[in-house]
Records
---
Amino acid sequence: MNFSTLFRTKENLNLDKSTLTILRYIAIFGQFIAVNIVFFYLDLKFPIKECYTIILIGLITNLFLQFKIKVNQLKDSYASLFLLYDLFQLSALLYLTGGILNPFSTLLIIPTIVSSTFLSMGTTIILGMITTFLLFLLSNISLPLPGVDSNVFDVPNFYKQGVLIAILIGLIFLSYFGIRFAGETKKRSEALNKLQEVISKEHELESLGGQAAAAAHSLGTPLATISVVAKELKKEIGKNKEFSKDIDLLISQTKRCSEILKQISKKQIIEDEFFSKTTIEDLLNEIINSFKETSSKKLILNVDENQKKFDFQRSPELIYGLRNFIGNAVKFAKRTVEIKIKSNSKNLEVLINDDGPGFPDDIKEVLGEPYIKSKSSEVTSNAGTGLGTFLGKTLLERQSARLSFLRDNKLGGASVNITWSVTDLNSNV
C-alpha cells in the first residue's frame, strides 16, 4: 500500500443542500421514533422531555437550512456548521440515554463520514477530532442506560473502552473510504469531461468542413456574377486608364476568391471520403504511415490472409482510440511495434504489440482507469497519468470494442487486444 496517499489533500467537493437536508430529516425522524419506542413501548424511563427539546431544535435548524439558505451547493463552512451541530445534538441525546453503551452511539460517526465524502480534508479532520473527544466524554460521563439498574449492572471500564475503540476504528476506516471514493469520483468526472472535449472537437472540425463547403457553394454564383459584370464594365470604359486599373484589380481579386473557394470544396470532398466507410486494414495502414513520418521505430502490420473483411464507419472515436494505443506502443517500444489483424466467423481482433518494458504488474489490473501511475522505474520516465489510455479505451468501447491488456507477447513487451464481435460490426455499419 502506498501510504503517501493516505493523508493527501483533495479539492473540495460541494455538498448539495437537498442531500444534507434529506439526510438530516431522516436522522431527526429516526431519533423521534427511537425515543418513543424505547420510552412508551419498551417502558424504559429516561428524560424524554429533554430529548424532545433536542430533537425539536434539530428540526428547526433543518427547516432553516431548507428555506433560509438560498444556495444549492453548500460551501465548506456552511455545511461544516450544520454537521458540527448534528454531532453535539446526537451527543446530547446519547448523554441522556446511556452514553457510549447506547446501541445508537455508532451513529455519531455519520457527520464525519459525510464530510469525508463531500467536504475538504481539513474539515473532515476537525470533525473527526471533535467526534473522538465526544465519544471519550460519553464513555466516562452520561446518565445511566435506560432499563438498567446501576446498582446491579455495573459495566467494566475495559468494556466501555472496547466500544470506544471499535467506534473509532469504524470512524477512521469509513472516513478514509469516503475520502478516496470522493477523490476517485472527481477524477472520473474530469476524465469523462476530457473525453467529451476530445469528441466535441473532432465533430466540430467535421462540422466546420461542411459549413465551409456550403459557404463555398453559396458564394460561387455571386462571385461569377461580379466577374461577368466587371468584364462588361471594362469593355464599356475602354481606354479610360483612371477606371481601367480598378476594374482589373476587381477582376483579379474575384478570380482569386473563386480559386480559394474551389480549394475549400476540394478539401471537403477529401474530408467526406475520410469519414466514409473503410476496412480496418486501410485505417490501420493510414495511422501507421503517419507514425512512420515522425518515428524511427519499425512498425509492422500483419494481416491474416484468410481473414474476412469488415467495413467500419470512420468516426473520430475509432480513429482517436486506435491512434492512441498505437502511439503508446511507439512511445514505449525499443525498436519494433507489430500490429496484427485476425478474424473468424465470430470476432475481429486487432493486437498491438511492442518490444518495450511491458505493463508493470502494479497497474496491470487497473489499466483503463483514469489517473494511474506506476512505481516501475522502467516506465516512469515516459508514463503519464493514464488519462490517454482511459480515453482510448472508452472511445473504442463506444464503438462496441472489448479491450484486454497483456504484459508479455513474443516481442517481450506490452500487448493490447482490441476485439469486435461480428454481430456488433454488422449492426454498427
---
Amino acid sequence: MVSNQFFVKKGPYPLKEIIKAIDCTNNYSNVKDFEIHGVESLVNAKENDMTFLNSSRYKDVSLKTKAAACITSSNLSKFLPNKCIKLNVKNILLAVTKVSKMFYPKADLDYPDINLIDSNEIKNKYPEVNFGKNVFIGKNVQIDKNTFVGSNCIIESNVKIGKNCVIGSLVIIKYSIINDYVCIKDGSKIGIKGFGFIPIGQKNIRTPQIGKVILGEGVEIGANCTIDRGSVSDTIIGRNTFLDNHIQIAHNVKIGTNCMMAAQVGIAGSTTIGDNTVIGGQAGISGHLKIGNNVKIGGASGVIRDIPDNSQVMGYPAVPLRDFVKMSFAEAGIALEFKGEGVNEKAFVISCANPEYQLEIGKEVLAIDPIYVRPTEVELLIGDATKAKEKLGWIPEYDLKFLVKEMMDSDLHLMQKKQYLKEGGYTTLNYF
C-alpha cells in the first residue's frame, strides 16, 4: 500500500513499542530505537516501514525488501536481508494484526460511510456525470466526465472513478480506484472488507484490511460480483479483463490484462493470475498461488497448486488437459504423444497394449476445434475439501484415476453396445 487516502492513520511508533506489543521471542533490548512509519507488504515497504514474512514462498521478494524490520519466525528469518531487523514471533499473522491495528485502528470492520449526500444536492459538482435516482456519494469522491451511475448506488468517500465508465444500479463502491472505460454491472460490490480472521483458541480475531481495489482501464465486472479490498497490499484487476456474473475475488488478488472468467469463479486471497488467462465457470482457485500467462482452466476445476505459463488444466485437483486425455486413452490400453502447440496441438497413437482396441501407430486421435476454445458451462461446483478433512476427518473415496476409469468403462461399454447393434443390422443414432 504505497498510499492510503481511505483510512485514518496513526503513528509513527517507536520500534521498541511495537516489539513490546507483539511479544517477540528474542531479546531485542540492544536494538537501536527509531520510528516505524507504517506496515507494508514486502514489495512496497520503505526504509522506515515494517513488513512481514509468513511463508518461504515469498523468499524471492523478501530478500529484496527495503523494510527496516520484519515480523517473521526464526526459521524464515534467513530469507531476509541482513540490514532488516528480524522480529521473531510465535504467531506471525496475529502480530501483524496487532501492528496494523496500531496504525489503522478502524480498518478491522467495514464501517459504513456516514457522510453520504444525495447526488441531487451536489449535481453542480459533477456537471458531466449522469446519475440515476437515489444515488448517494461520500466526501472527496472524484468522478470524471461522461460516466453513468445507475439508480440506488452508493459511492463512498475518497473513491475515484474515471471517464466514460458505466456503473449499473445497486452498485456499492468503497476503498477503490476505478480507471477509464470501466463497466460495473448491477448489484456488484467493490472494495468490501476481505475475509481476514485469525482463530485464537475459541475466538476469531479480525484482521485489518487496509488495502484498496484498483480496476484497470476497460475492465468489465459482471452482475452481483464481490471484489474484496487488499489486506496490506491492493487487490488489482488489470486492463481489459472481463468478469462474468457472481464472481468472488478475495483480498490481495492480482489479475493481469485481457483475462476472462466465467460465472461463479472464486479466487482466494493473495493469488496472482497472469495475462490472457481464461477460467471456466465455477472454478475455484486456492490462495497464495501463482497462475501463469495464457493459462486455460476448465469449468468446475479446483486449483490447489501453481500453474505455469501456457498450461491447460481441468478437474480436481486440476491437472493438465494432456494428462487427463492420456489417462483416458490408457484405460483402453492406448498410449499417446502430443505434437504441436496451441490450437495446432494434436495427439497421436504410439502403442496399443489391448488387443481389443488396436489403432494404427501414428494415427491422429485428437485435435482442437477452435470453435470450442472458450470457458465451459458446467452444472457442478467442486471446491477445496481441505476443511472437511481437517475438521471432520473426511477422506475421499475416489481419486481422479478412479473417476477416469469409471468414465472410460461406461464409454467403452456403450461403444460395444452400439457396435453390437450395428453388426446386427440396426442403425444407431449419435447426438454428439
---
Amino acid sequence: MAGQEKKRNPRSAALILDLLHIVIGILVVICAILAFLDPEGNSILFPVIFWLAALLNGIVGGFRLKMSGHDKKKQAGGAVQCLLAVILTILGVLSAISIWRESLKNEILKCLKQTDGYVSGQELCERLGVSRTAVWKVIRQLEAEGYEIEAVRNRGYRLHDSADILNEAEIRAVLTSQWLGQNVKFLEEIDSTNNEVRRMAEQGAPEGTLVVAENQTAGKGRRGRRWDSPKGSGIWYSFLLRPEFAPEHASMLTLLAAMAVQNSVKEVTGLDGLIKWPNDIVVNGKKVCGILTEMSTEEDAIRYVVVGIGINANTTDFPEEIRATATSLALELGHPVCRAAVINGVMCAFEEYYGRYRETLDMSLLKELYNQKLVNAEREVKVLAPGGDYTGISHGINDAGELIVELPDGSIREINSGEVSVRGIYGYV
C-alpha cells in the first residue's frame, strides 16, 4: 500500500501543477488585458504580472528539483526556473518602485501647482504618506527636469513660473477634465499622434485616450498635406473618441474641436483667436492651429474617431512658404505659453461641447456660439470648388455644420467642408 501511495503522489502533484498553470495563466492574461486597456489606471498590474510569473516558475522549479532525484539535467532545469523566479520577483519590485516614484512625482507637482505660495514639506509628507527624504528626492528630480522650485526654511516649497515644460507629469498636474485625457501617453518623438492613437484604438484603448508628442516626424494635415511639427515649440496631440451614433454625424466633431481650441486659446492666453470655417484657428489673420479628424467604420457603425490637433504655440520661425499665413501664440503674445495649460483647456471645453452635441446630433445647440467665433461670418469669401471658384457672402453655419453662402444673384448654397475650401477675397481669411 505504501508503494502504491508513492506512485500516486507524483501524479497528484503533476495534476496540481497543471491546475496551477491554468489558474495562474488565466490570471496573467486577465491582468495583461486590464493593464493594456487602461495602462495608467491599472499600472500596478504590471508588477503583479511579474510576480505571478515568478510564482509559477518558483513552484515548477521547486517541483522539478524535488522530483529530479539524481538526474542532473532535471536538477539544472529546476534550478534555472527557480533562478528565473527570483529574477522576475526582482523585476516586479523594481517595476512597483518605478510606478510609485512616478506617481509620487505627479502628485507633488500637482500639489505645487495647485498651491498659491508655499507648501511645507511636512504637509506634503502627511498628504502623500511619505518621508521628508522622499519628498526632497522628488523636488531634486523636478529641478533636474527644468522646474524652478524655491525652498525656504520653515515655509516649504514654491513652484515658480518657469520655462515651458511638456511631459506626462506636467500634463497630469494641470489636467482638470472629467474623462478626456485621463489615459495619457507622452512621447518625445512619433511619426504622427493620429497614427499612434489609431494603433492604440485598434488594440482596445479606452475613449478619451490622449497622445501628446514633442515632435512629429510625419505630421498630417488635410488632404494628405504634411504638417510641420518641430520639436519643443508646438502642441501636437490627438485623442480618441468611441461615439455610439451613426457615421454621418461624425463630420461635425471637427467643428467642436475648433470651438474647443478657440475657447482654450482665449482663456489661457487672452488672444482673440477666431475660427476660419471649418476648423482653422486664426489670430490677427494668420493660422495658429490645424485640426484633422479621422474615422474608422464597420458596416454602418463608428469603430472610433481620432481628433488630431496641431497648435503653433511657442514657434518663433516658419518656413518661407507659410510665413505670410502662419503665426504662433508666442509671436502674438511676445512671450512663451504654457502648452500643458492649453491642452487642458481644449480637453475641458471639448467635453462640454461634445456633451451638448450628443443631445441633438447636430449643431442646433452650438450653432449660435460657433458663428460668434467665426472670422468670416457676414464677410465676402471665395469658395474653391472642384467645379470652379466662386464668391459670395458667408452667413455662418446651419444645423448640419455646412457653411451658408449667398451668391451675388441672391441664391443660397450650403457647402460641405469635405468638398471645398474657403478663403478671404484678399488673403487667407
